[in-house]
Amino acid sequence: MAAANYPPVGFHFKVEFLFDKKGTVQQTDNDILFQSVSGLNFQMQTDTLREGGENRFEHVLPLRNKCTDLVLRRGIFKPADSIVSQWCLDAFKNFSFAPIDLIVTLLNEQHQPLMTWKVHRAWPKNWKVADFNADKGEVVIETFELNYNYFSVE
């Protein structure tokens, strides 16, 4: 059986941030290393219409697509060591930021792209640092929650 028929694994991926208008990646090596990526979902918003005299059901009509927040998790880096952290810090500290595009790429065993999702006009909505706990020897995780307009599969 050919290996191409098997579903890909979800643990080999990279995230690239496009901080300039030309679409070139400008980031440190730390900025592609994420523990997890979630939120590449479309959700159809609907409206309910009740028909007069018809009590057995309601009509549910599609309105528009909505994307959930993109959530990126990784071990924490100082803002001086990460352009992404600097971008978020500037957004929350100075309320000064520009929405950016980013690319999430699922990779195969040879580190070649299998699928690519381009996220359009993302901006930082939430930035969290995990709790510190002396009872556990865990890596400190930072979580970025980004709002975005839409994504495309390329």
Automatic annotation (TrEMBL):
Q: Which molecular function terms from Gene Ontology are attached?
A: structural molecule activity
| InterPro entries for the chain | CHP02241, Phage_T4_Gp19
Q: Kindly list any coiled-coil regions of this protein.
A: none
Q: Which domain of life is it from?
A: Bacteria
Can you name this protein?
Answer: Phage tail protein
